[in-house]
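yo, Two component transcriptional regulator, LuxR family is done. seq:
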Amino acid sequence: MIRVVVVDDHPVVRDGLRGMLGTQDDFEVVGEAASGTEALTVIAAVRPDVAVTDLRLPAPSGAELVRLIRSRAPSTRVLVLTTHDTDADVLSTIEAGATGYLLKDAPREELFRAVRAAARDETVLSPSVAARLVQRVRTPVSAAPLSNREREVLTLVAQGKTNREVGAVLHISEATVKTHLQHVYAKLEVPDRASAVSAAHQRGLL
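structure:
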């Protein structure tokens, strides 16, 4: 029997996952949590074989949560089930110790296979995530492609918007905009906004 804890901040999603997993004779959902803090408490108490968790949760979340689960409950494997598949999300969570990474639009049979694989400590990735990892391995760091969010930020910068205005449009903080721009500068090997916009146009990124 594979003992599973479901972690998601949406009750409907947790109910849906519990219902789906409950259709399989070899799964037992032994707990659920709506936040990172609650997840750590539940996992420490029931010691499941697999934690199926979203990335975006009340803190701790994402790679930090994966790292904490792996350090505090080494026998529990972490299967990420999320709608987010950016390079940063994928790489950081796998580096933190996630055993698998699936998107929420995956067919239920794929989810079942992933939970079983995770319980065996076998890595399982959705096709799009696997493709991203292969591309990242094959691409030199200096030529790493821009993420969707970095592209959005740079597009707005190219329109002449300030960091504050970009943040307002994308509903992110000004500090986050600056961080995205720093990543853009590093990837395009340029020193500033104007150079980034110019380089992006030359490379057909905008």
